[in-house]
Amino acid sequence: MDDLTLDAVRAGEAGLADLRIHPETLERQAVIAQQHGNPQLAANLRRAAELTSLPDEEVLAIYEALRPGRSTGAELTALAGSLAARGLPLNAALVAEAAEVYARRGLIR
Amino acid sequence: MAGPVTGDPGRSPGETTARSEKLIVKSGRERFMDAQRVNLDGFAVPDASLGLVAMDAPADPPPSLVIAAGRVVEMDGVTEADFDSIDAYIARHGLDLDVAAETMALTDTNFARLFVDTCTPRAEVIRLAAGATPAKLARVLALLRPAELTIAMTKLRARRTPSNQAHVTNRLDDPLLLAADAATAAAFGFREVETTVPVLADAPSNAVACLIGATVAAPGVLIQCSVEEAAELELGMRGLTSYAETVSLYGTEQVFTDGDDTPWSKAFLTSAYASRGMKMRVSSGAGAEVLMAGAEAKSMLYLESRCVALARAIGAQGVQNGGIDGASVAASVPSGLRELMAENVMVMARNLESCSGNDALMSESDMRRTSRTLPIVLAGSDFVFSGFGSIQRYDNMFGPSNFNAEDIDDFLAMQRDWGVDGGLRTVAPGRLLGLRREAAQVCADVYRYLGLADFSHVDLAADAAGSKDLGETDTLAVLGAAQAIRHRGLTVVDIVTALDECGYPEYAERTLAFVRARLAGDYLQTSAIFDEQLSVLSLVTDPNDYAGPGTGYVPPPARQAEIDAIRQVRGVEDLRRSQSAAAIPGLLRPVGAASAGTSPRDVVIGVSPALGVDVWQCLSGASVADVLREVLAGLEEEGCAGRVVRFPATVDLGQIGLAAARLSGSGIAIGLQGKGTALIHRRDLAPLANLELYSVAPSVTLELYRLLGANAGRHAKGATPDPARNPYSDEAIEARYHTTVIALMELERARVVPGAAPVELSLEGLR
């Protein structure tokens, strides 16, 4: 963050990667949210910290997969497994829970 | 944000739907009432089966919560097996089960009282609300009356310092006009700017133009470009925008699904925005479910309570509600405006940022739309408007907002009238044109440097009140620029480079400093905005500490001065200057002590201490010289001779007129003050009695002053005068002139010499 200076821009040393928020920053903000009476905001920021490791296209693809009627139950379960295997347990839990509720509420493909 | 508002162009004022076949014959008074603009508005027969009821519908469930082994097994009358997807998400993630039993055991009334009781701290209400089910919170909010909602909002909003958001859009997506208008919005004090597009593909260009324009005017203004999710996320990932708020939630599963989302997809999207360091809030609000025929016979407030509980459950930091696109639906039913405000307070009680609606024109009546917004201005909100239409109504691509460009001065006056901070400030006269030109020029330079487009209408955009003032523009060039930004993957770093290379290192550094500040992540906390020093003000750094009179947010002295100093204020010295500009040196030369007249045709015109000394122009705009000439001419018409005598001892017109009558050979006199108030007096009357009085000085024409002279002459001769009628009008005459009257009277008072004898004045200067 401190590297993002006008000199760095002039030297051509600043790019898209320098615009990305750091997962540790999000974890620190999650702690603050928890301390200020909002554990749900904290949970969101922790899911976000995990997602910093995924490319933009994949983030958008997971969003698409979670929309109504886009995925089968098996596809959602597989997606949850894949996320868990890659070190995104919180997002994996979110997708797994979606798979369970979607099946009951007719939201799967 | 607000979507396009659909009106019914087929209706004209006064048209009403026949309630029965019986022919109604109306009086002129009723026809007059029918013609008022408020009768263009639609008012609905409440119908709970359609969801056309503000609060407490028969089908709203009674609050309930059953917890077994740390898990919610029943909520608001629905058992776990029957939870729909909204129930399920709230039950699993949205409630604080440690406090829920305590909350649900409170009676609705006792809970409602805690919202209003200034001895109960905000934190206690927040703690308890975390354990309230949607039905519980809806019932509690329905108990709060308007004044109580105002207190509750004052106490419960998360951020201590109120703020405001602007819509900046135009019909043409013209980048130079967007830049000039974003700069204007930032100059007026808006801390968030929301843009959108009539042409979807133009979105990247709009984001860049607003970013540049806002940066020219002030550091730290958050920018949003409201478009489809993937496109919006992409703009955010590239640092071109800095917040999102159009992530919609709905109160029934059917409508949620029709909106092509689920609570889980929205929860994921919420995290996706945060993962790219972008602030976001969700959108909900009454009326959406009704409009989509999916309200399931529930009240607007109950359905919104589900949305707000879900917003908290998915971890969004804030909610835009208070009707939004459906504001006029709520406004069509009894207690609808109360419901809209209750939605905002509910968000605050759930410890979330409130972006409080007021962003869709909910009435054709100026009084109704003011009535809708005023309580929120008085209480103060994180964002008083979720889009004040800072631009022309016709340029607002969300549809007109509840307040628009023509209302900015009104809003600034409202802040000043009530001594409250609605987030806006006056822009110094003359500053806007230069600022707008700079913003448009910088935008044109950046577009040219980056090879996006070659625009040359900087001066037109700087001066334009709206896009209709631009004439023909090249909309294809805009589309080309937007596509280039998108396909070349331009980021905020490219904008910084362009600003730097085009000779604007200060704006380059300002843009970069803002990116760095956002990367620190503090603005992801509840209710976060940046001030102009790039400090974050949020629930964390600027917590609301209202606990009754003498506590909570009071504008700091510098801010209070800003609120008070609207550009229209005038003081005594301003008036003294404008009066002296109209001075005619030597107009009324003193010629010595005035003596009593002897001729029966002698009529004295008694003038006040400062007339023709410091006061040269009457309230009507006529010069005192012309007024005196007309009065003298009127006297002459009737064969009388007027003379002018100054009475320095008093400013009281009755005293001046009576004293003048006692000097008059005829016993009749005219009294005249510098502001133009005039009367005819007679020597045997009491001071406050008179024969004729021109009390409405601003409306007195030169013809009427001549008539006054003639009537005084007729009185002097014992003839019958034709009394003048005071020219009353429907103008707010007192609002227009009272401040000037006070200043004029001060100029008069300053020239008073107590006990001084009357002075005869020469008529030479009047000839």
Number of helical regions of chain A: 6
Number of domains of chain A: 2
Biggest β-sheet: strands ordered side by side in the sheet of chain B: 14-20-16-15-17-18-19
The global form of chain B is elongated
| Fraction of residues in β-strands of chain A | under 5%
The top level CATH class name of the largest domain in chain B: Alpha Beta
Number of helices of chain B: 29
Class of secondary structure makeup of chain A:
mainly alpha
* CATH topology grouping of the largest domain in chain B: TIM Barrel
Named CATH topology of the largest domain in chain A: Hypothetical Protein Yqey, Chain: A, domain1
Notes on the structure:
Chain B: Residues 1-20 are annotated as: Disordered. Chain B: InterPro entries: B12-dep_deHydtase_bsu, Cbl-dep_enz_cat, Dehydtase/Dehydtase_re, Diol/glycerol_deHase_lsu_sf, Diol/glycerol_deHydtase_lsu. Chain B: This is Propanediol/glycerol family dehydratase large subunit. Chain B: Pfam families: Dehydratase_LU, Dehydratase_MU. The complex is a heterodimer of chains A (109) and B (767). With 109 residues, chain A is an all-alpha fold. Chain A has two domains: 1-52, no CATH class; 55-109, Hypothetical Protein Yqey, Chain: A, domain1 (Orthogonal Bundle). Chain A has helices spanning 6-10, 23-35, 39-51, 56-66, 73-85, 89-105. In chain A, helix 2 (23-35) runs antiparallel to helix 3 (39-51) and helix 5 (73-85) runs antiparallel to helix 6 (89-105). The model of chain A has no long low-confidence stretch (mean pLDDT 96). Chain B folds into two domains: 165-537, TIM Barrel; 576-766, B12-dependent dehydatase associated subunit (Rossmann fold), CATH 3.40.50. In chain B, a hairpin with a 5-residue loop joins strand 12 (529-530) and strand 13. The relative contact order of chain B is 0.10. Residues 2-18 of chain B have low confidence and may be disordered. In chain B, 42% of the residues lie in helices and 10% in strands. By secondary structure, chain B is of the alpha/beta class. At the A-B interface, helix 1, helix 2, helix 3, helix 4 and helix 6 of A face helix 2, helix 5, helix 10, helix 12 and helix 14 of B.
